Write a sequence for this structure.
């Protein structure tokens, strides 16, 4: 089973000031499956994190996505 993450989930997971931060952290920590991220979501999430929290947090977020609990999904047209 996979969970599909969108931009809102990724931003809330990373930004403690987001309203749904706690719920997103709970999902990420208790998920018994990989969290899949469509590659098309990454630019928007990276931009929002950079704009709202800063460059260092955005870079740490992108580095975290290389962990085995995450899967980056290619989009084919």
């Amino acid at each position: 089973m996979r969970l599909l993450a969108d931009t809102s989930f990724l931003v809330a997971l990373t930004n403690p000031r987001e309203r749904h931060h706690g719920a997103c952290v709970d999902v990420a920590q208790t998920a018994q499956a990989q969290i899949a991220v469509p590659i098309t979501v990454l630019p928007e999430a990276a931009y929002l994190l950079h704009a709202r929290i800063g460059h260092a947090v955005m870079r740490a977020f992108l580095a975290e996505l290389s962990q085995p609990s995450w899967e980056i999904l290619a989009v084919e047209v």
User: Anything to note?
Assistant: The domain at 2-73 is CATH 3.40.50.1010 (Rossmann fold). The first helix runs from residue 7 to 14. The beta strands are 2-4, 34-38, 70-73.
